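Issue: ligand-bound run for glutamic acid - logging full I/O for the record.

Environment: standard queue, default settings, no custom constraints.

Inputs:
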Amino acid sequence: MSVRLRFAPSPTGWLHIGGLRTALFNYLYAKKMGGEFILRIEDTDRTRYVEGAIENLLDALKWSGIENDEGPKIIDGELKEVGDYGPYIQSNRLPLYKKYVDELIEKGAAYYCFCDKERLDSIRAQREAKGLIPRYDGFCRSIPLEEAKKRVEAGEPYVVRLKLNKHEDVKFHDLVRGDITINTDDMDDQVLLKSDGFPTYHMAVVVDDHLMGVTHIVRGEEWLPSTPKHVLLYKALGWETPTYVHLPTVLNKSRKKLSKREGDVAVGDFRKAGYLPDALINFLALIGWSPDTTEEIMNMDTMIKEFSFERVSKTGGIFDLDKLNWMNAHYIRNKENSELLDLAIPFMEEEIGLAKEEILANREYYEIMMEAVKEDCDTLRVLANKCKMFTEDEITYDEDTKEWLESEDLPKLKDGIKELLQDREMDLEYAGEFMKLLKEKTGVKGKALFMPVRSLLTGKAKGPDFVHVLYLLGKDKIEKRIEA
Ligand code: GLU
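Outputs:
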């Protein structure tokens, strides 16, 4: 049987980096097994709904290179649903849930509860005063079904709750955590249908995973306490339980849950900061999973090939920004210049104020600029800023260029450059010979030649090679910088 996996986010804000990791692991396994990857939107909690969150989510997934086979997609600028198991947005599936809630009630696996807020608050307060976890006391369990139905018909507000058996061991297997047993005495009569007629997450997730033929449920470990409730629902409805995998939480360096307070956590923030999607995905794959090789740099195809749940760890994975920067620098350095330029354009527009049209009209020139600056850039933003050494009319001089700018050879070198500039246009070929010619002309060589010229032209003591510096600056800028 072919596998079917799903990523089921709630549209309550921007896609979190931990959410993207969950989507990725679902995707990798689905693709490895030749199965389907489904996107389902869990929007039954209307109070937490955020306008635009679905579009943002789709955009973030698309950018990351994780494409869903089924579920909502943006096609020709419009939100559409693809696949035979729809609708994939839960708020469009309400009648379905109601049907199964009714079935559970008829089977005696669920019951109507009419307790009002005041009563629930007071039970909670009583339990809290005793230092106990808030839990419903089962007051409405004993209402005969016929009586309850009459009250519902009469218009009395109600919820529907799961009717737990007492002292029952609920067992399930998790591919990462092994066998897990929880006793119903440690569980609550979970609300399944809310007073607004919407199902709770627990009810909707079980119905949808079953109806959508989901074979593996791969999600963050924060959902582990919910799983026994789901297992009981599958049992009550006479359905086969899927395979469970709970992923370790993404932690910060002090081993706490990654939170907004410590910086960026939304996928969009990383995109804006200038991380490449392939670098971010490669980095995230290694949080909580390790391949059976020592090679850490992997493209999506390799990750799909190597992926397995056996190598997912039980303990939290650390989000190490230094490692992400290292990896991003690696991906930037290894990108083809043409592709790198396309990725860098938005950042060059923002950082340097260059227009996209201007860059595209001089593509070849800017591709060579990419070649010149792509070493040692943690982000595309850093890369764009490095381009300023070629694009700005005025440059600032780093502290460590001072000694070279005071060199006694400098006047001689300046004159030599000026003379050589008169001879020919500064094309790549001339740029390639230029320093040799300057050496012959001035008799200055080695460090005494390179360091003052580099400092003078770029404001830096280290940087791109001279062929690129000379070519990219061109005659005019070189002359201006000599005069400055
Ligand atoms: N809607 C849940 C979330 O927001 C999905 C949990 C699950 O995968 O079952 O993460």
